[in-house]
Amino acid sequence: MHMERLATETIIQVFLSVPTVAAAVNLSSTCRRLRHIFTSSKRLLILGQAAETEYGPLDDIVQLVTHNASQPAHIHRHAPLSLALIRSLVKAGQVAVKYEEIYPFKKWKSDFENRRTLTVDERLTLRKALYRLWLFTRAFHNADHHRLLRASASAVYERAALLHNFSTLELAEMLDVHNILRDTISRNICPSNHVIRARVHKRFPDCDHQLLFNPHFQFLPSAPSLFISDYYHSNINAASRFHDKYTPTRTHEPGAEGWGDDITHYYVVEDMLKLDPEQILWLKNNATFKAQVDGYVRSMGDWFENNGETFVQTMQFVLQQRGEDLQDIKIAIENGEMGVALAARKDSVV
């Protein structure tokens, strides 16, 4: 039977079964009747169900996009569906979906022989954890929470009130995603001196150029610069936007792209973890050079500097109240016993 001859109720069920928002919109464009059904009073129902399937759980996104300073973050909020709300849900969901592809590369960075794609259930778990972590960042990593007040009892209890909404298993999932964000920052956005040295050596193993890691050093002496520039450019095998970052020239020293040794780098990453997942993703894809990242951070304001993230500290406080230990949770995540991707799920259908 031709689809146009189906009952309206049946067509609505077809709309409610599509896997993505784009598929629902595309289906509505196939003929006038489907367009008429889509643009009827069922539009919000159809788009909401498609968004739930593709980007859900929507309830967690609603908590994120409807948060503002007028209400404590731990208070559960309900919002009626509207086109404006759906646009906000889809925007946040698109960010979460991109982390579904990043997660396997970070999770199994060393254990790459066991790397795999996430199952449908694991993707849902990752998105849920990311939205909740994003809400924590939006609520507590801003200009209203500067470093002088971060350890005050009222601030700690306010942050803990949000995390108390989640079970220990859910907190472990959030910490697992937090680790992925940390790795993205420490290796892709703000690499340490050690990482810079390893990457330059990997690209140009036969060159004995000594990297200069002084952050205030911007220019190489003119004579060696010409030689080094010629050597590096002649040995580049593939075009990449990162080649300039690791290639010494007259005006660029790769060592200047390093964010310090282990101790200095640790505090840099702690500061950068106050950025939300969307900001981290944007910097990963668009800020190639240290100066670009530094400029972005400076635009955040004075509150951002020397004011590390508070999620892990708050999670430890909540676990202590429950009689549990953060270190045990970290070990369980590392062993695949807790978190987004569990070892027991690796053989399940993707």
Concise synopsis of the structure shown:
With 350 residues, the chain is mainly alpha-helical.
**Number of DSSP helices?**
17
User: Could you list the spans in which at least 5 consecutive residues all have pLDDT below 50?
Assistant: 216-239
Give me the strand/helix succession.
HHHHHHHHHHHHHHHHH
Please tell me the overall pLDDT.
86
Biggest β-sheet strands, sense, barrel: none
Strand content of the residues, in percent?
Answer: under 5%
Distance between the termini: 33 Å
Number of strands: 0
| Helicity, as a percent range | 55-70%
Radius of gyration: 24 Å
What's the shape? globular
Give the class from helix and strand content and strand pairing. mainly alpha
Please supply descriptive tags for the structure shown above:
single chain; mainly alpha
What does this molecule look like?
The chain is mainly α and 350 residues long. The protein is 58% helix and 0% strand. It contains 17 helices and no strands. The chain has helices at residues 8-16, 21-28, 32-38, 43-55, 58-65, 83-107, 120-140, 153-163, 168-189, 193-203, 222-234, 243-246, 262-272, 277-286, 290-298, 311-321, 326-334. Helix 9 packs parallel to helix 14 (277-286). The longest helix is centred in the first third of the chain and has 25 residues, at 83-107. The protein is globular, with a radius of gyration of 24 Å. The model is unreliable at 216-239 (pLDDT under 50).
